[in-house]
Amino acid sequence: MTLTTEVGRSAVSASHRQPVLSIRNLSVDYGYDNNAVHALHDVSLTLHAGEVLGLAGESGCGKSTLAYAATRLLPPPGVVTGGEVLFTSSRDGHGGDLLTMTDAQLRAQRWKDTAIVFQGSMNSLNPVYTIGRQLMDGITAHSPRGFREQARVRALELLEMVGIPKDRLGSYPHQLSGGMRQRVMIAMALALEPEVVIMDEPTTALDVVMQRQIVEQIMSLKNELGFSVIFITHDVSLLLELADRIAIMYAGKIVEDASADEVYRMPRHPYTAGLLHSFPPLHGPRRELGGIPGFPPDLMKLPTGCNFHPRCAHAFEACSVIEPPLGPTSFESAEPFRSVACLLHDPTVNPGPVPVELSVRPLLVRPPSKETV
Amino acid sequence: MRFLLRRMGFYLFTAWAAITLNFFIPRLLPGDPVQSLINKYHGRLSTDAIDSLRVLFGLNTHTTVWQDYLTYWGNLLHGDFGISFTYFPTPVAEVMVQSLPWTLMLVGISTILGFVLGTLAGVGLGWRRGTWLDSLLPVANFFSAIPYFWLGLIAIAIFGVALPIFPASGGYDGGLLPSFSLEFIGSAIYHAALPALTIVLSSVAGWILGMRNMMVTVSSEDYVTVAQAKGLPERRVMFGYAARNAVLPSISGFALSLGFIVGGTLVTEMVFSYPGIGYVLFQAIGSKDYPLMQGVFLIITLSVLVANMVADFAYAFLDPRTRQEA
Ligand SMILES: Nc1ncnc2c1ncn2[C@@H]1O[C@H](COP(=O)(O)OP(=O)(O)OP(=O)(O)O)[C@@H](O)[C@H]1O
Ligand SMILES: [Mg+2]
Q1: Measuring CA to CA, which residue among B306, B303, B298 is closest to residue B80?
Q2: Residues A210, A215, A216, CA angle at the centre, nearest 5°?
């Protein structure tokens, strides 16, 4: 596990920071008019080529909403109220804004450029078609006519790639175990060698051993095929291990965006620090388990100012008034590749020093590469 | 395969039970129905007919029930259901052979048409839910709530009497003899149009509503979203993924309605005086024509059985999950 991720991480260097998917100021509402739930608020996030971007946050903070909105699959009553999702191929530079493409462009783009594995993939397979048919129809839809035989060969190849016996091609979904179905979904997502794969809690419904196996498989396939991943989970410890960068979401906003080890060693947002303290560390010295007091806010009745301030131990007066933008940390020049949405890091607002646990000094100025881990 | 054989066995057993029941029911009638029938027909019944009546009601004292039962089976297998009184001296089998095609054509075709049209419309309405098409739903609701005989009478009153576009009764022009000539077939279609229209109209709304609701449910299933995410053509997603699953619950309903073609045709054929098996049954009941009734009931039972069997097999064909469980 550790080995494969190290290889994956070292592939990312400053010169490689070429964005393939950039989500800009994306806002999503569920419902209309005054009753609308603001599920996403001005979310900006960039996935670079070859990168594993982790997206973490408590249940209900809008992770799945982000995945659906970014692929224009948001079910009603979800509405994108603003923003853009720019795809730029790192292979030949084609792309565009997924949210304003025509239906035909979108259909051509889907699966070929961006594929997605949904949360709870147990129901992601059509129960009345064989998995072979479902693997193949995605391939043939994006291929010239008369591609059936090649599609079959490719489907067999994909099954083999995720470790499912080839003779399962003719099986129906109900004849497979949960883990196998999950692998089929992953194989399906990789069918057309997309550049971006969004995985929304791909292992949630599985037991721990199976989770491990599948995560390892995803990572080794990533290294083999070179796609970029947005990996969504509420399991921060998993992300610390496999992600290059981690974005933390809270109540529909990104509150911190930094490299994985920066998040682990030097969290800048009080919520990030709280999340890190709510599970035991995998390596290194034991820490006291904390957790975060209170509950995530009701999206219908968001607090004024910073969404997190009612639960925040470091909140001061300004927090209930001013909405903190996602911006540089207080060590701006020393860590140019990370950002945080917290007034503690805003010298124009914060009256005092940043609390110690949120201001661990960066070791050295460097790009977010992992060689120094 | 084993599943199919097991189901076949089950249906054969049920058919046997139904046929046997059909044998015993007339035997359970109290009194001497034969004597009263002889009186009713004032001696117009031949001795042949009286003998077969005695056999039918089990009043034939020379034989045991067991022997009667074997004779009954023997007759059945030869297609011999006895002689009808109403259409005396035509054998029951012949009466049924003459009337059944009318029913199968009229009610069969309009039942299938109603299902196909309603299901297709339901697919469209469900797929485009939330658009102006939803305003058609109350109309469908209205039609599904109208009792059939009322719809039939209104149709006759409007299109048969007030604006005589269609004939109000009968299966073909009285001046023609049944044949396969173009003229006769044209006349038959012309006479069938109005009853067929009422059948389609009264059944289509139910299929639309059922299918639309299932489409709405299925459209939010993950596998439909996955199909969209794969960039499949919209038609493929709509039919191959959404409708393909949404139609499953409708299948058994459809098979049942196929089974009721013969049994449920009574009202239609009464309202339109249509020469099908329902009308025959209506007459048989009116004149206590027991042999004819027995024949028609047997056909009704068997058609329900066959329809169920078709539903089972269709289900096994369409839903791989049922194949395994059974
Ligand atoms: N159809 C809907 N109507 C109204 N609100 C919705 C709808 N779907 C989701 N929401 C709200 O949007 C918010 C974000 O939901 P989302 O599913 O994106 O959360 P999540 O971060 O993926 O959670 P989890 O970790 O449990 O999967 C939730 O607060 C939820 O209540
Ligand atoms: Mg989710």
Answers
A1: B298
A2: 100
Percent of chain A predicted with pLDDT > 90: 53
Please tell me the total count of domains within chain B.
2
Residue with the smallest CA separation from ligand 1 atom 22 is A64
Task: Give the pairing type, strands A19-30 and A114-117.
Answer: unpaired
Domain hosting A286: range is: 1-113+194-373
Do the strands A196-200 and A114-117 form a parallel or antiparallel pair, or are they unpaired? parallel
Segments in chain B below pLDDT 70: 1, 29-33, 36, 40-44, 56-61, 324-326
User: Do B313 and B190 share a structural domain?
Assistant: yes
Average pLDDT over every residue of A169-175:
94
Residues 6+ apart with CB under 8 A from A153: none
Cα angle vertex A84, ends A102, A230, to 5°? 105
Helix (H) or strand (E) holding B206: helix B182-219
**C-alpha A329: how far from chain center:** 22
Would you say residue B190 lies in a domain? Answer: yes
Task: Identify whether the C-beta of residue B34 lies closer than 8 Å to the C-beta of residue B59.
Answer: yes
Q: Both tokens of residue A229?
A: 């991943």
What CATH number has the domain bearing residue A18? Answer: 3.40.50.300
Tokens 């990789």 locate to: A190
Contact A174 B245 (CB under 8 A): no
Q: Is B46 on the interface with A (CB under 8 A)?
A: no
The amino acid sitting at A137 is D
Pairwise CB contact (< 8 Å): A125 & B241: no
In a domain, A342, yes or no: yes
Q: Are residues B118 and B66 located together in one domain of the fold?
A: no
Same-domain status, B153 and B226: yes
Whether residues A123 and B130 touch (CB distance < 8 A) is answered with: no
- For the CA atoms of A345, A347, A350, A354, the dihedral, rounded to the nearest 10 degrees, stands at 50
Domain assignment present for residue B83? The answer is: no
Instruction: HSE, CB side, 13 Å, CA atoms: give it for residue B144.
Output: 15
Residue A318 lies in a domain: yes
Which residues of chain A are within 8 Å of residue B244 when distances are taken between CB atoms? 126, 128
Domain span at residue B114 reads 92-325
Is the Cα dihedral B150, B154, B156, B161 positive or negative?
positive
The helix (H) or strand (E) run that includes residue A250 is strand A245-250
B161 and B278 fall within a common domain:
yes
A-chain residues within 8 Å CB-CB of B231? 106-112, 138, 141-142
Integer Cα distance of A303 and B14 in angstroms: 68
Taking CA atoms, A232 is separated from A9, A61, A246, B183, in Å, by 18, 12, 10, 72
CATH number of the domain that residue B228 is part of: 1.10.3720.10
My answer on whether B163 and B64 are in the same domain is no
Give bridge partners of residue A340 from the DSSP assignment: A256, A327
Q: Chain B contacts of A110, Cβ < 8 Å? A: 228-231
Q: With respect to residue A340, please indicate whether it lies within any of the assigned structural domains.
A: yes
Residues B61 and B121 in one domain: no
Domains of chain A: total: 1
Smallest Cα distance from B311 to chain A, Å: 17
Percent of chain B's residues with pLDDT above 70: 93
Residue A56 domain-assigned?
A: yes
For ligand 1, say whether the CB of A64 is within 6 Å of any of its atoms: yes
Whether B10 and B62 share a structural domain? yes
pLDDT tens column, A31-87 = 888 888 999 999 999 999 999 999 999 889 999 999 999 999 999 889 999 999 999
Provide the token pair at A148.
């059936």
Give yes or no: residues B273 and B319 share one domain. Answer: yes
- Read off the pLDDT of each residue in A356-363 and give the average, rounded to a whole number: 77
